[in-house]
Amino acid sequence: MVVCLLIDQNQVPEWSWKYSLVMDEAALEQFFDNLIANDSSKVEDEEELTEEEEVCLSLLPDELLTPYETRQKNTDDTRQTAENDTRTGLNCTCLDYSSQNSTQVSEVPGVLSLLEQRGSCICPTTSMMPVKIQNVIATVKLGCRLDLNIIAHKARNVEYKPKTFRGLIMRIREPRTTATIYESGNIVCSGANSEDQSRVATRRYARIVQRLGFPVSFLNFKIQNLVATCSTFPVSLERLMLAHHQHCSYEPELFPGLFCSVIPGITATIFASGRLTLSGAKKADEMYKALDTIYQILSCFRRQ
């Protein structure tokens, strides 16, 4: 039973009913805060959205995620441990990695083991040059024809403008890559920093398309191009051009870099500062061998 009392505000002190009004508002705010915090429907909606996001951007754990994430974690742990050991053993000694005398570096304990453990980003056969893979371009066939209009309407993070470009562009955040998907079922993936990342990314794109109802297969995955960069030492590009004019192209008025194709299928862009960009290799081993050969050539044209 609820009893309502009608009280004239004139008969009650002003400070009393104002204080009561403030207390009621504070109680209501606290009540609604607790209600929102304990609202299970909102939490379930957020969890469902998170799971849906994972479905769109993930693959089966036994296919990809476990090997890739495990390898990434082991690589990070190995790098951190090796760096700590090297700092302790060398007492922060600075080494000249661009020097032609590699015996100074090889005699220091712990350095070679550190470089070998960093095999993905350091090439131990290129006279201690730190090499970084900037881009990996890979292709794969899905084995079926695709309706790009359906993919454009149902998938996330896509761009499709058939009047200007016949391919559909799709992006994912992990690994951060971009794919161009064609109606024939071919995918071109770019932006990965390693061969493993490129394979993971292409399989994720294939999985996204498969979840849209297409009978997708994963066929003929190939690395088409590796792009890597490294820094050496200042080089005299004019002398290099005169000595290897049959394999080099140098037009300083148009572009400051020298294009060198000593190794068939692989092109090196060399700048006077010693900055080097290598493209055209399809395997990491090919790239490292090419860098080793180019380094030996550049050593003869080192600028003092």
From TrEMBL:
Gene3D superfamilies: TATA-Binding Protein (3.30.310.10). GO terms for cellular component: nucleus. Belongs to the TBP family. The keyword Transferase does not apply. It holds the Pfam family TBP. Keywords: DNA-binding, Nucleus, Transcription, Transcription regulation. It comes from Lates calcarifer (Barramundi). One of its GO terms (biological process) is DNA-templated transcription initiation. This is Uncharacterized protein LOC108874715. One of its GO terms (molecular function) is DNA binding. It is found in: Nucleus.
